[in-house]
Amino acid sequence: MVKVQYMFYYKQVIKLKQGYSAFVHGKHENVSNSNSLVYSFHRNEGDNTMLVSVNLSDQTQEFVYDDFRRETPNLMDKSQSLQRKNGLKPFQVSVWKI
């Protein structure tokens, strides 16, 4: 079962890389947030900006995204959307087009 989960995850990552050129050609920029256990960064290419946040811990973490402007869907989990205050499950990776 675990192997199937990894395969699904990497298929999602490959699809995002193919669909958003910011992941291939974009500039990397670290983004501060309110939680040191959540690593966040932007990938920017022209008007195309992606926000990636990674929970680096084995516990659910909350973080505040200070540059929040509008609600936008999580491209890795459609049931979540970007808010000013966000929650990430253990080791979860979230991606938003902002």
Q: Which keywords apply here?
A:
two-stranded antiparallel ribbon; 8 strands; four-stranded antiparallel beta sheet; globular; alpha+beta; 2 helices; 98 residues
Summarize the structure.
This protein is α+β, with helices and mostly antiparallel strands.
Work out the helicity level.
10-25%
The SS-based structural class is: alpha+beta
How far apart are the termini?
Answer: 33 Å
Count the helices. How many?
Answer: 2
Q: Report Rg.
A: 13 Å
Please tell me the overall pLDDT.
91
The SSE string, one letter per element, is HHEEEEEEEE
Number of strands: 8
Strand order of the largest sheet: 1-2-3-8
Low-confidence stretches: none
Strand content: 35-45%
Biggest sheet architecture: 4 strands, antiparallel
Specify the overall morphology. globular
